[in-house]
Amino acid sequence: MTYKFQFRPYRRRFVRSLTTNHGKWGIREGIILRLTDESGKVGWGEIAPISWFGSETVEQGLDFCRQLPGEITDEIIFSIPDELPACQFGFESACEMGSGEWGVGSGGDEGDNFITPNFSLLTPNSLFYSALLSAGEAALNQWQTLWEQGYHTFKWKIGVYAITDELEIFESLIQTLPAFTKLRLDANCGLSHEEANLWLRTCDNFKANPELPLEIEFIEQPLPVEQFQEMLELSRCYKTAIALDESVATLGQLAACYQQGWRGIFVIKPGIVGSPSRLRKFCHQHKIDTVFSSVFETAIGRLAALQLAAELSRNNRAIGFGIDHFFEQEDTWLQSLWNDL
Ligand SMILES: O=C(O)CCC(=O)C1=CC=C[C@@H](O)[C@@H]1C(=O)O
Ligand SMILES: [Mg+2]
């Protein structure tokens, strides 16, 4: 198949910047792709890298797009190198969307200048969402509104402030969160081995207390990527689950951690993991325990990611896409990128 290829870079400021152990993130940059096939069907895709997680940079994605001809083929798309996982995701999902494989999204004709993602088809009962709580004590004032919006799973960033302060806030959080809430703790590689043991011991002690019917679902990426063996060892010492995120950011890393014995939770960020078709193959073959997670992409990338989450989520784990409060309404903004068409 041959496609007419067009792309537009974008920059979007978060409504509220995100602070993690990696630092402060205030602006999401990425690239929107538009593929028009020979029958005029339009497919949209998005390249939304997170280079500090191990994907390519936005600049590398732009360089790749710029060196492509105005007409590209399936062969070009399915031979995008593994060093460009966000490009693999963006181009492949644009093909899938344009071919109408998902039964949602654009798949429209040439005149269909813009996709109006129909998320409802993807999220009736099959998926539910986790909401992200800011690092530090701000979380204590955020969860209530989100709970009232229907979120019952929350992810709180740790490894940002002093552990003594975060443990104190944690105690307040678990005392106030409603029963049967699920709480995830995401350290973004930011704990020392000693701190990881302290957090896991604290969570295990909490789990042993039947008075508090709240579930600590997992601690995400407690240690740096280089300390895989230590995390594998920790996963065998505590009841509280550990989820790998930065360690399994790309398909190559995912396969390597599995091959080295990881059978815990895998956080999958479709936007940066790489080829959707190869991800499907891996997940179907190995039946891994997955949590799907956003890369703070636009509605275009999110639709493609939710499609994969709907297909590949296991164990009823909420997906980390509850971030609408991060961005203003985006339909008109996204459309404005293509006003020159
Ligand atoms: O997974 C979620 O619940 C929301 C997305 C999220 O937490 C992240 C998205 C992108 C980069 C990171 O800062 C962060 C993460 O570490 O998972
Ligand atoms: Mg994470």
From TrEMBL:
<dbReference type="Pfam" id="PF21508">
    <property type="entry name" value="MenC_N"/>
</dbReference>
<dbReference type="InterPro" id="IPR029017">
    <property type="entry name" value="Enolase-like_N"/>
</dbReference>
<feature type="active site" description="Proton acceptor">
    <location>
        <position position="269"/>
    </location>
</feature>
<dbReference type="InterPro" id="IPR041338">
    <property type="entry name" value="OSBS_N"/>
</dbReference>
<feature type="active site" description="Proton donor">
    <location>
        <position position="157"/>
    </location>
</feature>
<dbReference type="InterPro" id="IPR010196">
    <property type="entry name" value="OSB_synthase_MenC1"/>
</dbReference>
<protein>
    <recommendedName>
        <fullName>o-succinylbenzoate synthase</fullName>
        <ecNumber>4.2.1.113</ecNumber>
    </recommendedName>
</protein>
<dbReference type="InterPro" id="IPR036849">
    <property type="entry name" value="Enolase-like_C_sf"/>
</dbReference>
<dbReference type="InterPro" id="IPR013342">
    <property type="entry name" value="Mandelate_racemase_C"/>
</dbReference>
<keyword id="KW-0460">Magnesium</keyword>
<feature type="domain" description="Mandelate racemase/muconate lactonizing enzyme C-terminal">
    <location>
        <begin position="136"/>
        <end position="241"/>
    </location>
</feature>
<keyword id="KW-0456">Lyase</keyword>
<comment type="similarity">
    <text>Belongs to the mandelate racemase/muconate lactonizing enzyme family. MenC type 1 subfamily.</text>
</comment>
<dbReference type="InterPro" id="IPR029065">
    <property type="entry name" value="Enolase_C-like"/>
</dbReference>
<comment type="function">
    <text>Converts 2-succinyl-6-hydroxy-2,4-cyclohexadiene-1-carboxylate (SHCHC) to 2-succinylbenzoate (OSB).</text>
</comment>
<feature type="binding site">
    <location>
        <position position="186"/>
    </location>
    <ligand>
        <name>Mg(2+)</name>
    </ligand>
</feature>
<comment type="pathway">
    <text>Cofactor biosynthesis; phylloquinone biosynthesis.</text>
</comment>
<comment type="pathway">
    <text>Quinol/quinone metabolism; 1,4-dihydroxy-2-naphthoate biosynthesis; 1,4-dihydroxy-2-naphthoate from chorismate: step 4/7.</text>
</comment>
<feature type="binding site">
    <location>
        <position position="245"/>
    </location>
    <ligand>
        <name>Mg(2+)</name>
    </ligand>
</feature>
<dbReference type="GO" id="GO:0043748">
    <property type="term" value="F:O-succinylbenzoate synthase activity"/>
</dbReference>
<feature type="binding site">
    <location>
        <position position="220"/>
    </location>
    <ligand>
        <name>Mg(2+)</name>
    </ligand>
</feature>
<dbReference type="Pfam" id="PF13378">
    <property type="entry name" value="MR_MLE_C"/>
</dbReference>
<keyword id="KW-0479">Metal-binding</keyword>
